[in-house]
């Protein structure tokens, strides 16, 4: 099984993401953007932040973009300003990064976890209605891996039960459902620009999108110490701002987002082509009528941990998103979820594996990864 590959190709080192390669590809733009911020001392607020907000809102055809410090804050600020709090429940995915549930708790509300579906790893929309109670205030779908949730079903449920929808778009820049962009379905959406995200800053950054002018103003106020005008605090808030450097970097990167997204999709398509037919692995399925932007390329595989080691020995970095379903983490012991309540997610935690994917990945690298996987399974 542990066949040694040819020595030349064995020198390959494929990181999980390659942020340096991306920087080098647009170094001039980035360096110029950073230099401008410094020479103009536009560190907090200022024109780059305003320009980025306007550009990101326009890209989505949405009226308001409120920049903030990170994607986690974006989720928290939205829920807090929608009035979600003590005694309320918010329905969300079991398979996600902890931001999508810890922000529910931060407001004082309780996260209600739903299993993922067997094909797309997203919240299983067919299980939501049974979990709606008189306390339910919102549904928080997470477009995990860059794959859209079933927003038609979720919108119908939200309308029927008078619930808010808060989209977690941290992994779904430019993903679309029926041609409509992620972040335009709910009452508000949260985006993250963490460096490794499909649109990444050089530090933490995030934003909120909404068409609701009242909510937008509240969110902006809350994120800026409760004051839209300095010293005029209408309420107590928090300090959650995107700094000027991050805004200028994001502005410089934004024109490339479409290209990078197409490159990710092309790499995913190629992965699927060269990995098809290996019976020990299950490849990602794409939901009908959606654009999957492949923030992550996640397979399910036999002997996952041995495969991880074998790939590592051969210079290939991988990751697991996520090793433990949220409700089974120690942080949620108090909610007393059992594996049987989320059977799909629980089974998948031992099988899922994220392969390297980023725009700068090459066909040669994907071939090498695929050949290494085939060598492991001796196929
Ligand atoms: C990255 C991420 C977040 C949080 O974003 P930060 O900017 O790191 O706070 C929220 N939800 C999901 C699904 C994420 O992947």
UniProtKB/TrEMBL annotation:
GO molecular function: transaminase activity
InterPro entries the record matches: DegT/StrS_aminotransferase, PyrdxlP-dep_Trfase, PyrdxlP-dep_Trfase_major, PyrdxlP-dep_Trfase_small
Domain of life: Bacteria
UniProtKB keywords: Aminotransferase, Pyridoxal phosphate, Transferase
CDD domains associated with the record: AHBA_syn (cd00616)
The UniProt record lists the keyword Thylakoid: no
PANTHER family, A to Z: 3-OXO-GLUCOSE-6-PHOSPHATE:GLUTAMATE AMINOTRANSFERASE, TRANSAMINASE
Recorded family membership: Belongs to the DegT/DnrJ/EryC1 family.
Name of the protein: DegT/DnrJ/EryC1/StrS family aminotransferase
